[in-house]
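[SOLVED] Need 3D model of a two-part complex

Original post:
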Amino acid sequence: GDSVTQMEGPVTLSEEAFLTINCTYTATGYPSLFWYVQYPGEGLQLLLKATKADDKGSNKGFEATYRKETTSFHLEKGSVQVSDSAVYFCALSAQYNFNKFYFGSGTKLNVKP
Amino acid sequence: DAGVIQSPRHEVTEMGQEVTLRCKPISGHDYLFWYRQTMMRGLELLIYFNNNVPIDDSGMPEDRFSAKMPNASFSTLKIQPSEPRDSAVYFCASSLPQGEAFFGQGTRLTVV
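Solution:
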């Protein structure tokens, strides 16, 4: 079945460091891919998305490229800030059942000043 | 729009009691989802609705759990009787067809 696997956390970085959170997926066809962010005490918020192969989603300095050949959608940011500390979830929705979302287990990011 | 609204934000109840969680989706969204989040199991999809009709309830853990959507602007998730292992954060989300999911702030349930 469809699924998402993302790197386990926590990930601890210093401010201005480069961030990569790995995400790979298993799905038939061409799913849509998402990154969500969850700040403490809040619900998940959409961070970025990509709906077809080779698309790059970007928002707030974060980027992720939909790689069909490696079934990956890694999240990157060139220079993290303390305010980026949160839990990040990779997710997919299936091509033939778009409105059913599959989430990864989440990766907690801690950014230290 | 105010977004997805869930109530209550926090609920503490005793084992064996009935618990009802409530959700108001974003107006115009056809899909509504209930998720449960725990440290051990992460984010689990319990059930989702399309146009008020349950489409997939395969994630509902036991018969103690039930969900309803009597109209387009309201849904409930009920646990009866509640058990300590039901303690979790329960999220409601809604979406348009082929759109991303918008989440509420969640209900933190503690069963003692």
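Edit: The longest strand of chain B covers residues 42-50.
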